Amino acid sequence: MLLGENYARSMGLAVKRARFLTMLGASVLGAVVTAFCGPISFLGIAVPHLCRGLLGTSDHRVLVPAVVLMGSAVALDGADRLAAARRCAACCRSMR
After folding, report:
1. Cβ contacts of residue 75 below 8 Å, gap of 6+?
2. Can you give the three-state secondary structure of 1-13, one letter per residue?
3. I need a labelling partner for 6 at 20 to 30 A (CA). Which of 29, 81, 90, 91 fits?
4. Where is average pLDDT lowest: 25-29, 58-62, 85-89?
5. Tens of pLDDT along 28-55?
6. Residue ranges of the domains in the chain?
């Protein structure tokens, strides 16, 4: 499929089915890794793909620094949101 949908179709590949099975497999593998290793490993899997999509390049000279910065920003944002949710939950419990 990397050579294009028309080429894959001409070789006899059911493109929609192949795309669905690829996405299903990737989703299951991502879920298993996250369940086994925790959310930090999910960041390691997801952030490079997010950067590649946002920047629209596969040049590693651009991607590696962007992944480092975006990974730290996403982890910091997640930690901040978790802390805020815990503060809110503690505040709500004290009002009862």
Report:
1. 40, 43
2. CCCCHHHHHHCCC
3. 29
4. 85-89
5. 988 888 888 887 878 888 899 999 999 9
6. 1-37, 38-96
